[in-house]
UniProtKB/TrEMBL annotation:
This is UPF0391 membrane protein ACFO3Q_13500. The keyword Transmembrane applies. Keywords: Cell membrane, Membrane, Transmembrane, Transmembrane helix. It comes from Coralloluteibacterium thermophilum. The chain crosses the membrane at residues 5-24, 30-47. Belongs to the UPF0391 family. It holds the Pfam family DUF1328. HAMAP family: UPF0391 (MF_01361).
């Protein structure tokens, strides 16, 4: 999940550098959503791992 977020972040940076701002914005939004999902799943796994 985190690797997909990093890939979309790199796509957004490259697209922004070349002037494709629509693609860059979309890729950045996808990267943010994936990163938030990763953080939520990470926190859940930490909580469940400590309680067992």
């Amino acid at each position: 999940m985190l690797s997909y977020a990093i890939i979309f972040l790199i796509i957004a940076l490259i697209a922004g550098a070349f002037g494709f701002f629509g693609v860059a914005g979309t890729a950045a939004t996808i990267a943010k959503v994936l990163f938030v999902i990763f953080l939520i799943l990470f926190v859940i796994s930490l909580i469940r791992g400590r309680s067992v």
